[in-house]
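Hi R.,

As promised on Friday, here is the backbone we talked about, encoded as structure tokens. Could you run it through your design pipeline when you get a chance and send me back a sequence?
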């Protein structure tokens, strides 16, 4: 458009000239900040947790609690007149070894995620809870096996 004196535009349009259009390349680069990448933080948490002796012992304890639960369940159900009291697991205990392996894998995965995402002191608490909660069932099974019929 043409402009007149004083910067006002006139209603008369300038002849249209075709302007060349060029292709461009836009590269998006994230800003580097003082914050390390989330993946690097997770890997460092896992590395620290695996080097911590308490975390390794608690992880092994949580896994052993699941194995003990499977073994005590097999022994308890092998006795005459015993049945699975948990109605959710009653059908599953036809193959207690398979259920025990499934529980062991799930607990190991949950513990691995905790060690991957949490710093050492919090991972210890999570693993202690996993081990403690997992130890309840085999202790209860032992009392029922040794208790009066």
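Update: got your reply. Pasting your designed sequence below so it's all in one thread:
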């Amino acid at each position: 458009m043409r402009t007149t004196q004083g910067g006002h535009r006139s209603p008369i349009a300038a002849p249209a000239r075709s302007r060349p259009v060029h292709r461009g390349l836009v590269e998006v680069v994230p800003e580097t900040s003082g914050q390390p990448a989330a993946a690097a933080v997770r890997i460092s948490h896992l590395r620290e947790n695996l080097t911590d002796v308490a975390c390794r012992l608690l992880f092994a304890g949580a896994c052993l609690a699941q194995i003990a639960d499977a073994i005590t369940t097999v022994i308890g159900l092998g006795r005459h007149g015993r049945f699975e009291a948990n109605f959710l697991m009653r059908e599953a205990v036809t193959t207690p070894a398979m259920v025990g392996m499934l529980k062991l894998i799930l607990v190991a995965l949950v513990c691995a995620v905790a060690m991957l995402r949490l710093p050492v002191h919090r991972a210890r608490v999570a693993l202690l809870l996993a081990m403690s909660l997992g130890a309840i069932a085999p202790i209860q099974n032992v009392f029922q096996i040794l208790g009066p019929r």
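One thing I noticed while checking it: The mean pLDDT is 82.

Thanks again,
M.
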